[in-house]
């Protein structure tokens, strides 16, 4: 593993004291006890089962797709602290195409799915001979183990992953070769915890409600029940009666008319959908899951959206309470992982998601907002045109302001005069205006004379 350089030698020196960290908070797909005694009561919370619940599935796919659809930009900070998008041969290619088999959207979707499901995302770096990162690969989190040396250095033990080019069955690499994004580090700062850890029981409840409902309607919407007799019957007769009932009035035969004789009586045992408040229970399960993921319930089809019809405000709320922490984390992880934390040739570089791809306003609102920004002298016309994907125009790189606007200092100086509203004050302004007109006229004449001389 030549790409790791001298850091591999350091690992070999400290390998005798490497120890795994506490990973009880990590979600490894095994059975967890949702509460004490859940195992004995056959209440199993399995990851592959929980992911089949529609609300869990939608929360994960919604967050992942919303973050992945934003374009990641390489930006540079100028002397005024303004970040401007740039292109760099060492960093831009891997941001546009992280690896050979994934697009940018697929890569960041995979990144977020791993983080939301397992609480951890491990990204393996591929370097070239220049030690520049040329490939990024999201690893299977169940095949990565975090190790800590006696001196506090962090290492990662990787199992074989042919897709990422890691062909060793057991390879330990330093932290410099792994981008580790984690969430909810409740038990250990190097081990994240999935929201499923908190909402798994609610998902299991919802799945069981739906499963029971499917069986109920599969039985012709007829509840299970018990047949009672007035007198005593033998076990053989009871078994015969049960078999007769199941073969004639259950499954595909549910809903047929049954005739009971000899004092037999049928009483339903299961509660109906109304009695068990099926819809309310499912809504509670879905809302509990949404709260664990930080997703507004109406985003996944649970309940109604807020009464106010302001899409921009609702998207801003969704961004602030759900997406922002993940977006900021990915940007920081990429800055550190690609080596952008330190200035390069005196230039400060960084990565930044384009939020315009996430919170797009409707055309009318966007045009009104840009027109207001241009009219308010905080944006050039060409900058506004670029936002609308329109080409620049001549003279559009200047911020305009109306002539009648004066600074407070100028107005104060005017008010300090003996006659602020007299001819002298107005005359000065008119003189300035006339002087400007005269200078403009002189410039026009001079330009015309120059053109005439060239023609001659």
- The percent range for strand residues is 15-25%
Name the quaternary structure. single chain
Radius of gyration: 35 Å
What is the total tally of β strands? 14
Low-confidence segments, ≥5 residues, pLDDT <50? Answer: 1-15, 427-431, 433-442
Number of helices, counting only DSSP H or I runs of 4 residues or more: 13
Mean pLDDT: 78
Helix content: 40-55%
Strand line-up in the sheet with most strands:
1-8-9-10
How do the SSEs run, as a string of H and E? HEEEHHEEHHEEEEEEHEHEHHEHHHH
Task: Determine the N-to-C terminus distance.
Answer: 75 Å
Structural class: alpha+beta
The coarse silhouette is: flat
Number of domains: 4
Query: How does the major sheet shape up?
Result: 4 strands, antiparallel
């Amino acid at each position: 593993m030549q790409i790791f350089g001298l850091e591999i030698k350091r690992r070999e020196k400290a390998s005798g004291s490497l120890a795994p960290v506490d990973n009880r908070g990590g979600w490894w797909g095994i059975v967890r006890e949702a509460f004490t005694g859940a195992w004995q009561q056959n209440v199993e919370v399995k990851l592959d089962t929980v992911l089949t619940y529609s609300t869990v599935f939608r929360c994960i796919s919604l967050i992942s797709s919303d973050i992945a659809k934003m374009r990641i930009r390489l930006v540079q900070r100028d002397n005024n602290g303004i970040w401007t998008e740039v292109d760099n041969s060492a960093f831009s290619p891997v941001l546009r195409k992280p690896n050979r088999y994934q697009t940018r959207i697929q890569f960041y979707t995979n990144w977020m799915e791993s983080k939301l499901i397992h609480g951890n995302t491990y990204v393996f770096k591929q370097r070239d001979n220049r030690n520049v990162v040329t490939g990024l690969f999201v690893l299977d989190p169940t095949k990565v183990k975090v190790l800590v040396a006696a001196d506090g250095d962090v290492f990662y033990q990787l199992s074989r992953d042919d897709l990422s080019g890691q062909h060793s069955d057991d390879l330990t690499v330093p932290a410099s070769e792994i981008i580790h994004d984690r969430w909810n580090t409740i038990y250990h700062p190097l081990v994240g915890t999935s929201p499923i850890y908190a909402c798994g029981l609610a998902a299991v409840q919802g799945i069981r409600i739906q499963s029971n409902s499917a069986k109920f309607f599969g039985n012709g919407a007829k509840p299970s029940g018990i047949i009672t007799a007035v007198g005593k019957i033998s076990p053989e007769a009871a078994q015969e009666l049960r078999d007769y009932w199941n073969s004639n009035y259950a499954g595909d035969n549910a809903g047929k008319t049954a005739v009971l004789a000899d004092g037999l009586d049928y009483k339903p045992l299961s509660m109906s959908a109304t009695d068990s408040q099926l819809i309310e229970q499912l809504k509670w399960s879905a809302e509990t899951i949404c709260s664990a993921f930080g997703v507004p319930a109406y985003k996944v089809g649970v309940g109604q959206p807020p009464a106010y019809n302001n899409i921009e405000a609702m998207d801003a709320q969704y961004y602030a309470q759900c997406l922002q922490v993940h977006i900021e984390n990915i940007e920081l992880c990429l800055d550190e992982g690609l080596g952008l934390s330190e200035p390069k040739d005196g230039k400060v570089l960084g990565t930044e998601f384009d939020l315009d791809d996430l919170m797009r306003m409707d055309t009318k609102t966007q045009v009104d907002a840009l027109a207001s920004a241009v009219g308010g002298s905080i944006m050039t016309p060409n900058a506004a045109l670029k936002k609308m994907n329109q080409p620049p125009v001549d003279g559009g790189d200047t911020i305009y302001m109306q002539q009648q606007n004066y600074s407070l200092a100028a107005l104060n100086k005017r008010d300090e005069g003996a006659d602020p509203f007299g001819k002298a004050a107005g005359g000065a302004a008119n003189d300035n205006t006339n002087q400007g007109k005269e200078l403009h006229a002189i410039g026009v004449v001079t330009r015309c004379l120059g053109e005439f001389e060239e023609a001659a």
